[in-house]
């Protein structure tokens, strides 16, 4: 029986190195260019970033989500989870370590489903951090409900013609290519009649109507595009994974993306808890430290309990993915992690903000950014409510209804069964009285 809560010494040494490296070398980048992680690299950024990435590669921690044949280490999801806890503290860290979203998920599906030509054209530059990508799936009228998607791709000779609208295509304005989900067969269900296409962003007919920003960002200066595909022509070899295979491709990508979000969220929530504890020990009011106030102690205890439970569950789910090598078999637990994730981050960041008082609400501290990020995580890669339905359905598959109108644990029937089971002994006992 194997059961261990320790990391093997060799990898723990790498994690310790990563922890110090991110703190000393990467987190300062967040202060210089916190909101520029997906902007094209200028000469200054290259001079700083390239040596950092080279050092990560020397340490064997570059693109750890991928196998050796693609330049990764083949460490698997569990080791990636332990590393991502560290990287989650810094927006720039995942870029320096070659595992930034959404490019990681896009790289994963190209690696899994792409042709040799597609991998040469798109995958290697993506892994090298020399290009960005965008996953163009959701639509204005449908959100994340694929049964309501209307963006069409129609075959015309040796080409496909894409027409329709897509919404919240993150990083489209800086991407070199888009992965577009479109309806290719209206005679079957959407689950069978949609396909994925690799589309360069300079293809004629791609019109970014608006770049939607998140809260606090200027109008039309955000990174989440509303795109009109107006007669966009792509060759037949732009298909990713084959005609009608969009859902198989999407589940591969989204399964990994969801659990990777959860991994990074652990690190961000831990950062909020660290700041809360430091503040509690540093600040005095009404005759004692905040750390001595029972309300604050309650905040710290609740936050520690929430984060520890979430962390252990994410690590378990990562272990399951490595064990089965099939996201579909772990769908219930991936969805559960996705459900729990935004609440954990929101609650801990909110408590930390409260402990910091007025300072916590300002733009001199990162708490509102964390809280807003929790709201985004509740919608990214599918709304929390949809995942709760998935979890419930998956859980219910392990049960069956009772045989009659009474529950299986109905006490009167169980009591009678117990008396019948031990009738011989009970009668003997009565006879001795």
How does this structure look, described?
Homodimer. Belongs to the acyl-CoA dehydrogenase family. It comes from Actinomadura rugatobispora. Residues 135-214 form the Acyl-CoA oxidase/dehydrogenase middle domain. The chain has four domains: 9-100, Butyryl-Coa Dehydrogenase, subunit A, domain 1 (Orthogonal Bundle); 133-240, Butyryl-CoA Dehydrogenase, subunit A, domain 2; 248-396, Butyryl-CoA Dehydrogenase, subunit A, domain 3 (Up-down Bundle); 400-433, no CATH class. 50% of the residues lie in helices and 14% in strands. It contains 13 helices and ten strands. It has helices at residues 9-33, 43-58, 77-87, 93-96, 103-113, 116-127, 246-282, 294-324, 331-355, 367-377, 384-396, 411-421, 423-431, and strands at 133-136, 152-156, 159-170, 177-183, 194-200, 206-212, 224-235, 239-240, 284-285, 288-289. Strand 2 and strand 3 (159-170) form a beta hairpin.
The CATH architecture of the largest domain can be given as: Up-down Bundle
Instruction: Determine and state the CATH class of the largest domain.
Output: Mainly Alpha
Indicate the structural class. alpha+beta
How many structural domains can be distinguished in the coordinates? 4
Output mean pLDDT: 91
Write the CATH homologous superfamily of the largest domain.
Butyryl-CoA Dehydrogenase, subunit A, domain 3
What proportion of the residues form beta strands (DSSP E)? 5-15%
What is the helix tally?
A: 13
User: Unreliable runs, pLDDT <50, ≥5 residues?
Assistant: none
Helicity, as a percent range: 40-55%
CATH topology descriptor of the largest domain: Butyryl-CoA Dehydrogenase, subunit A, domain 3
Number of strands: 10
Largest sheet: 4 strands, mixed
